[in-house]
Design brief:
By secondary structure, this protein is of the alpha+beta class. Helix content is about 45%, strand content about 15%. The protein contains 9 helices and 12 strands. The strands form 4 sheets. The protein has a 6-stranded mixed sheet, sandwiched between helices. The protein has a two-stranded antiparallel ribbon with strand order 1-2. The longest helix has about 50 residues.
């Protein structure tokens, strides 16, 4: 396929490569991107002045199409919109519709219409890769910065090279980084549907999606409430046990006092600090017979 004619430095099309469509609208030789050659909402494009019928997608194409849209919605900057099968007038004789487009959400300040897409994606088969190449050449010549192809049959992603006039294969383990994207777009997620949902979820978490943040806040609040409840119940149980032990310790001291057994500060402290109910029961029984408080603390005790 012949690559597009070189764009002279400083020409409207060349400037458009790095700027918005405002410049391209100012170029008198190019029609507005929303001037139609084909009827919108039909399955046609205009390439090289010829009407081209675009057939409906089969299931693999349609599913991958949907996943790419969802991935871009999750990864693109909020100032950008995602379009599906959106016609773009690329020249006097061409009116092409990329499968997926990423373009500034704000209206064009000159025309009041849509701005030119900055990224375009084509979901292709081996047979349709040539047709996608023709569209890619026309889109980049108009000023679309980057055009990608997702080849379903061969599980590969490609990017159009205007300089070489052909597709360049991308590393499936790599990422697409671009000024229109808030987060790098994992290429493997576009090739394998199973990975797409995971990457969409990661992107929404990374972007602090308000719904996800609300759910996480609810989970934290629920966990905190559960922890408070557990702490309260544990404290209540421990408090009951401590109160019961304290009552038994007081009973030991009462029995000793009633029998006029002298109890020093150290012994009193030891008795009151004891938390083992079984030990306190033994001391209480011993307090009824012992002559000295030290007898409570002997290992043998009274049988």
């Amino acid at each position: 396929m012949r690559s597009p004619d070189p764009v002279p430095p400083g020409s409207p099309a060349e400037v458009c490569l790095g700027m918005s469509s405002v410049v391209s609208h100012a170029a008198s030789r190019l029609p507005d991107i929303e001037d139609r050659l084909v009827e919108p909402e039909t399955r046609h494009e205009m390439l090289d002045g010829e009407l081209v019928y675009v057939s409906p997608a089969d299931r693999p194409h349609a599913r991958r199409h949907a996943k790419v849209i969802a991935l871009l919605e999750a990864h693109a900057l909020s100032e950008f919109a995602i379009g599906c099968d959106q016609l773009t007038r690329t020249s006097e004789i061409d009116d092409a519709a990329p499968d997926v487009s990423v373009y500034p959400d704000a209206d064009d300040p000159v025309t009041g219409g849509r701005q030119l897409e900055q990224l375009a994606f084509e979901i292709v088969s081996t047979e349709s890769l040539g047709h996608a190449a023709a569209k890619a050449a026309k889109l980049t010549a108009r000023g679309v910065r980057r055009v990608f192809a997702i080849d379903i049959e061969r599980s590969r992603a490609l990017e159009w090279s205007p300089e070489l006039g052909t597709w360049r294969r991308l590393d499936a383990a790599g990422q697409i980084e671009d000024a229109a994207l808030e987060l790098p777009l994992p290429i493997e997620a576009m090739l394998h549907a199973a990975r797409a949902d995971d990457e969409i979820a990661r992107a929404l978490v990374a972007r602090h999606n308000p719904v996800i943040e609300a759910v996480r806040a609810e989970d934290r609040a629920a966990a905190k409430a559960e922890g408070v409840q557990e702490g309260f119940l544990r404290g209540k149980t421990e408090g009951k046990a401590e109160g019961k032990a304290e009552g038994k310790a007081e009973a030991v001291l009462v029995v000793l006092a009633a029998r006029n057994v002298a109890v020093g500060d150290a012994e009193r402290g030891r008795i009151l600090s004891e938390q083992n109910p079984a030990q306190l029961d033994r001391w209480l029984a011993e307090a009824a017979f012992c002559e000295k408080v030290a007898e409570l603390f002997t290992t043998a005790g009274r049988p």
